[in-house]
Structures are given as C-alpha cells and as structure tokens.
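FORM 12-B: Structure-to-Sequence Request
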C-alpha cells in the first residue's frame, strides 16, 4: 500500500489499521479499492470522479439521506450501503490535493455482476430494484439534490444520445 493511500485511509473511522489495499472491480467512473484491516474488517475505498459528479456535497447528501432512511426502516444491514465517515464525522474526504474520497463497509459473501449472465440474473435484479423502490415509497424525494442535471430526463438523454 502506498503512503498516499495510507494517509487517505487514516482520515476515515475504520475499525483497525489498513494492512492491504488492492484495486477492486471493473468500474468505469470511480477508482475503487478493497481495503482490509488488522481487525479483519474489509472496506471499499473510492476516489470519486468529479468530472462526472461535480456536486459532491449534493451527491453525498443524497446517499446519506437514502441510506439513513433505509436503515431506519430496519432493513437488513447487508442490504443497505453503510457509509464510513471521516474522523471528523464527514461523509467524504476532500484531500489536500483536491481528490475526493469515500468509504463503505464491504459486503462479504455477495456478488456484483458486471453484466447479467442468465435470465435469472435479470429477474433477481428486477426483484431487488422493486424491493428498493418499495422501501423508498415514503421517502421525501423533494429533499434530494439533482446532482447531474437532466440525468433522469428521458427526452433530454435521448436527444443527447442522437447528438
């Protein structure tokens, strides 16, 4: 692990000291790392891509609001992202070199497919998405921040696609 990543991780409230850090997954937006500590805990460390997510405050507000809401409903801890705050209690770290980082508790004994491999994968994705929507039915959506303008505007996205 580099001194740089150790410096970043030291600013988060991890259980234990990071002993290994390795690239994780095949994402194309953020840089993602799997972190393990000397207490046997695992975490996901992400360097956030600010060229995509220009409103980091709004994005992290949304993540906190939704995850807090889902956790308050008594959802299975493994089913809801668990954000790890900085030692200062913030949901993300803006490092002195202007990079932005966040940490989640790693969900063990789970899989994350890059693409569906079977029709059952499609079905299970739909079931999970439906469960997520049902749990959020009472969520005050008006409290969320639009972090990428027109991202959910189908007509605008379609127009951009054609361009």
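FORM 12-B RESPONSE
SEQUENCE OUT:
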């Amino acid at each position: 692990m580099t001194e740089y990543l150790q410096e970043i991780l030291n600013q988060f409230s991890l259980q234990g000291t990071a002993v290994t850090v390795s690239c994780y997954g095949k994402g194309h937006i953020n840089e993602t790392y799997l972190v393990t500590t000397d207490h046997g805990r695992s975490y996901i460390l992400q360097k956030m891509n600010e060229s995509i997510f220009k409103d980091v405050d709004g994005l992290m507000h949304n993540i906190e609001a939704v995850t807090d809401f889902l956790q308050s409903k008594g959802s299975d801890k493994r089913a809801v992202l668990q954000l790890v705050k900085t030692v200062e209690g913030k949901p993300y770290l803006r490092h002195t070199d202007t990079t932005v980082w966040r940490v989640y508790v790693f969900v063990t004994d789970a899989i994350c497919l890059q693409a569906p491999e079977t029709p059952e994968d499609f079905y299970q994705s739909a079931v999970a998405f439906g469960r997520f929507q049902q749990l959020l039915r009472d969520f005050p959506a008006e409290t969320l921040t639009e972090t990428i303008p027109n991202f959910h505007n189908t007509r605008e996205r379609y127009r951009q696609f054609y361009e």
